């Protein structure tokens, strides 16, 4: 198990990585799934042998409230159907923490429940916010869970210029689920999970 990293350089590196993903040209992405709430694209990841996913959709609410629902905190566990538990293990500053969370089994339990320990950082970006994270090798793995690993991931949320009560939410996700899994099952699960994330989030914001 690694010691906890110094948060400031890790946060800075993480932000720079996400901003770089955000500038990848449209031509490099291939559409993986399209729903009324979001479009999901993917491209081969530079970090591991799977894919980097990009998800984008317009959400009817102000940026701060949307990000409060996404980042580690009291809201996330209430609405995210994939997340089954979440604990904040360490808090460095108001916008920086280490969290441990677990996810439900997927695809009729072909994908067993997973556990992740992520460093999470929220910062300003243009007129909106970026909340991003990366997994750490920290803490003991709980029984009955496979420890997954999130390579740099994040959500950009910016207000729409012509409609300030709406925000454009763009996510970059590259999750290594680990364990013995067929890649096709992982790819199916990722696209569906990201599409469901938008519909679940929209429902939660309306309540």
UniProtKB/TrEMBL annotation:
Source superkingdom: Eukaryota
GO biological process: cholesterol import; cholesterol transport involved in cholesterol storage; intracellular cholesterol transport
Residue ranges of every copy of the START domain listed in the record: 10-207
InterPro entries named in the record: StarD4, START-like_dom_sf, START_lipid-bd_dom
GO MF annotation, one: cholesterol transfer activity
One GO CC term, this protein: endoplasmic reticulum
Protein name per its UniProtKB record: STAR4 protein
């Amino acid at each position: 198990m690694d010691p906890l990293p110094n948060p400031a350089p890790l946060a800075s590196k993480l932000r720079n990585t996400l901003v770089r993903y955000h500038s990848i040209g449209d031509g490099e992405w291939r559409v993986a799934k399209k729903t009324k709430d979001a479009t999901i694209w993917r491209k081969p990841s530079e970090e591991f042998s799977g894919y980097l996913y990009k998800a984008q959709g317009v959400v009817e609410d102000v940026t701060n409230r949307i990000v409060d629902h996404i980042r580690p905190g009291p809201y996330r566990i209430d609405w995210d159907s994939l997340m089954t538990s979440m604990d904040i293990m360490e808090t460095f500053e108001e916008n920086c923490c280490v969290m441990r969370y677990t996810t439900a089994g997927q695809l009729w339990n072909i994908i067993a429940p997973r556990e992740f320990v992520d460093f999470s950082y929220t910062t300003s970006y243009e007129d909106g916010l970026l909340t991003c994270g990366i997994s750490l090798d920290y803490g003991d793995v709980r029984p009955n869970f496979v420890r997954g690993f999130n390579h740099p991931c994040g959500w950009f949320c910016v207000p729409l210029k012509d409609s300030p009560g709406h925000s454009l939410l763009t996510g970059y996700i590259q999750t290594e689920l680990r364990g013995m899994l067929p890649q096709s099952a992982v790819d199916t699960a990722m696209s569906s999970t990201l599409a469901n994330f938008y519909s679940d989030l929209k429902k939660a914001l309306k309540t």
